[in-house]
Amino acid sequence: MIEGRAAIAAAVHADLVDRLGRPRVLAGDEARKAVGMPPGAAGGPLAVAQPANAEHVEAVVRVGKARRAPIVARSRLPALVHDELRDALVVDCSTLQAPPVIDVGRKTATVGVGVPAGLLDRMARQARLCLRSLPAVDDGARIGGLVALAEPGDLGAGWGSLCHDLVGAEVVTGSGRLVQLGAADLLGAAPWLGQGLGNAVGHLLGSEGRFGVVCAVTLRLHPAPDCAWTGAQCAADRDRVLHLASLARRALAAHLVDTVLGHELMGRLRIDARVVAWDAADLPGAGARLLALGRDHGLPLAKPVAEDRRVRLGMQGGAWPQGANHEPCVDLQVAWPDFANVLDVSQALYAEAGHSPARRWSFGVDGARVRCALPVDADGVLRAEAHPLVARAGWLFDAGAVPVGAGSLLRSAVRDRMPTAAKVLGAALQRAWDAEGVLAGRTGVW
Question: At what angle are helices 2-20 and 54-67 packed, to 10 degrees?
Answer without folding.
Answer: 150
